Amino acid sequence: MIQNFKIYAYPPQETLSFDSQVESLFYSSLIHSHFITQNPEEAHLFFIPFSFHSGLSARAAAYVVGNYRTEFIYWNRTLGADHFFLSCSGIGHGADRNVVELKKNSVQVSCFPTTAGLFIPHKDVSLPPLANVHTPVHAPGSKSSSYLGYVRYNWVKESNIMEQLLADPEFEVESEPSDQLTYEERLAGSKFCLFEYGPEISAIGEAMSFGCVPVVITDRPIQDLPLMDLLTWQQIAVFVGSSGGVNEIKRVLGRVVVEEYEDMRESAAVASKHFVWNDTPQPSDAFHMVMYQLWLRRHTIRYAEREWA
Predict the structure, then answer these.
(1) Which of 18, 67, 145, 252 is geometrically suited to a Cys-Cys bond with 24, CB 3.0 to 4.6 A?
(2) Ranges for the Exostosin GT47 domain (predicted)?
């Protein structure tokens, strides 16, 4: 993949801007990488450089795709099935033919978590969140932990669960910054780190790097987890619903501690290296893992010209 994968990037139709730093990092890393080719005939995939001055609207996407469809032959060969685009929040559905084909056929690279309903799991890819990931913990043996679980003040929004966590001495809840223990010491001193599925789950990579096994509180299946083609998430994180409150969370974590905690801790720490974003991409970092997922999608179904002509 490293040597053979080639991507042709369409020329931007305007100056590009991005909604988030991770998007900017991905775009910069891609454009300056050896994956880019100036010869579209040797490309495995085609990159559509949308701009994000005010989000990616269906009308704006239709306009850009329509221009490329007219100026180049490559979209019409596959109806966009060998194309991909970058949109942090994802793109919604639309009636315009260009948007329908973009949404149905092209690979969407979005931020994690993606806006509900705007991610197609068998096709789309989510970027590992930008985080301060530390050197993974590889030391064998049991981890010395002061707390069963650690929760930062904004990681869980559900008020009832947060109240129960605050009242339970087995959990360390950082309600506001403190000089007693650093953030890193709290991560390192807890077996589990609790997150409610939502924007604040972006710190999941940091937790993993300290050997703090992520616990994701969610009442529905998560379809946009980063690197889903590459990581077996059930081996590195715990998923639990909110309806049973803290008692149910503790019951699940108690079983995990007895049966599989050490393996999960080691797996999470090792996997955290794939969440590292570097200004200059390095082997096995977040950029290369996303590129590998795109490489796996180069054989996405191709549509013959007679099907659209």
Answers:
(1) 18
(2) 4-241
Residues 42, 3 contacting (CB under 8 angstroms): no
269 with 290, same domain: the answer is no
Average pLDDT over residues 262-275: 94
pLDDT at 145: 78
- Same structural domain for residues 188 and 210? yes
User: Which helix (H) or strand (E) covers residue 270, if one does?
Assistant: helix 261-271
Structural domain includes residue 304:
no
Whether 183 and 271 map to the same domain: the answer is yes
Domain shared by 153 and 244, yes or no? yes
What's the whole-number mean pLDDT along residues 44-60? 81
Q: Which of 86, 82, 66, 63 is nearest to 74 (CA)?
A: 82
The answer to the question of residue 139 being in a domain is: no
Select the highest-mean-pLDDT range: 46-55, 128-137, 146-155, 238-247.
238-247
Q: How many domains does the chain have?
A: 2
User: 6: helix, coil or strand?
Assistant: coil
pLDDT value at position 100?
A: 94
Residue 166: helix, strand or coil by DSSP? Answer: helix
Which residues, listed in sequence order, are joined to residue 308 by a DSSP beta bridge? Answer: none
Q: Which two tokens stand for residue 282?
A: 């390095």
| Mean pLDDT, all residues of the chain | 88
Could you write out the DSSP letters of every residue in 175-239? Answer: -S--SSS-HHHHHHTEEEEEEESSGGGGGHHHHHHTT-EEEEE-SS-----TTTTT--GGGT-EE
